């Protein structure tokens, strides 16, 4: 599903944020990306979502060589990659329903189909009863679940999460990870950046560790 082939990312002001990264993540796999703040985790996820381009090397996602992707196919690519952020990035003045519906509206779905899909996604994250609430009325864990519902509502085969439990206590973090496991169970590929090693270490998943832009450890690479 994801292949990095000797990928480098250099920011002019900073130098190399990623150096010579190579790995493959198979379809249906769930893996964690760890490392200290500044190690390059967000940059790596942004390359997969095409929010950034590599300075050197090749990134292939679902058979598409992102470096060779025509500009007009970028929106299509982004739709196939669901992204979850630490700060949720919800619209504060819109209801839960409208926040989750947003990607489908952009894609031009009809009213009925949007209703059906949004409710399926909210049901999945256990928030069906909160569709009319605005994000401020929700707890931190609920807000993150809305962010997850929005990321999966268009049913992307790949989910990327950047510190999804960064603001949550251990109990709520565990719930979020269980949710990710349920998506993996239905065939979604997941790559989750987190420094929450206490949680991850107890789970039987692949862990890739970045240090200063290099992939220094990979528990499940092949
Ligand atoms: P992490 O997610 O592991 O904290 P990041 O990928 O955010 O790491 O950052 C890796 C390095 O790249 C850091 O030194 C950071 O300051 C730098 N960096 C990230 N984004 C940019 C940017 N847009 N411009 C310049 N430097 C950046
Ligand atoms: P249908 O299109 O069959 O009516 P739903 O939209 O109700 O289905 O979803 C059916 C199930 O498929 C859900 O439980 C959902 O978890 C699962 N599913 C399959 N692929 C994905 C995906 N990429 N993201 C989220 N859920 C998915």
UniProtKB/TrEMBL annotation:
Keyword Chloroplast tagged: no
The entry's keywords: ATP-binding, Cell cycle, Cell division, Cell membrane, Membrane, Nucleotide-binding
PROSITE patterns: ABC_TRANSPORTER_1 (PS00211), ABC_TRANSPORTER_2 (PS50893)
Molecular-function GO terms, alphabetical: ATP binding
Coiled-coil ranges from the UniProt annotation: none
Signal peptide: none
Protein task: Part of the ABC transporter FtsEX involved in cellular division. Important for assembly or stability of the septal ring.
Full protein name: Cell division ATP-binding protein FtsE
UniProt source species: Marichromatium bheemlicum
Gene expressing this chain: ftsE
């Amino acid at each position: 599903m994801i292949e990095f082939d000797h990928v480098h990312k250099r920011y002019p002001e900073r130098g190399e944020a990623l150096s010579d990264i190579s790995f493959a993540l198979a379809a249906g796999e769930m893996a964690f990306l760890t490392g200290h703040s500044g190690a390059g985790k967000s940059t790596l996820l942004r390359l997969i979502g095409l929010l950034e381009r590599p300075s050197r090397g090749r990134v292939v996602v679902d058979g598409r060589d992102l470096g060779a992707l025509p500009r007009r196919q970028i929106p299509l690519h982004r739709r196939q990659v669901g992204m979850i952020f630490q700060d949720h990035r919800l619209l504060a003045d819109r209801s839960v329903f409208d926040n989750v519906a947003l990607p489908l509206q952009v894609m031009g779905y009809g009213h009925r189909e949007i209703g059906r899909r949004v409710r399926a996604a909210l049901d999945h994250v256990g928030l069906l009863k909160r569709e009319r609430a605005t994000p401020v009325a929700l707890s931190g864990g609920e807000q993150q679940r809305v962010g997850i519902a929005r990321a999966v509502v268009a049913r992307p085969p790949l989910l990327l999460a950047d510190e999804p439990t960064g603001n949550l206590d251990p109990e709520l973090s565990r719930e979020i990870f269980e949710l990710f496991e349920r998506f993996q169970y239905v065939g979604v590929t997941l790559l989750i950046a987190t420094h929450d090693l206490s949680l991850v270490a107890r789970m039987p998943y692949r862990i890739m560790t970045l240090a200063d832009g290099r992939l220094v450890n990979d528990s499940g690479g092949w």
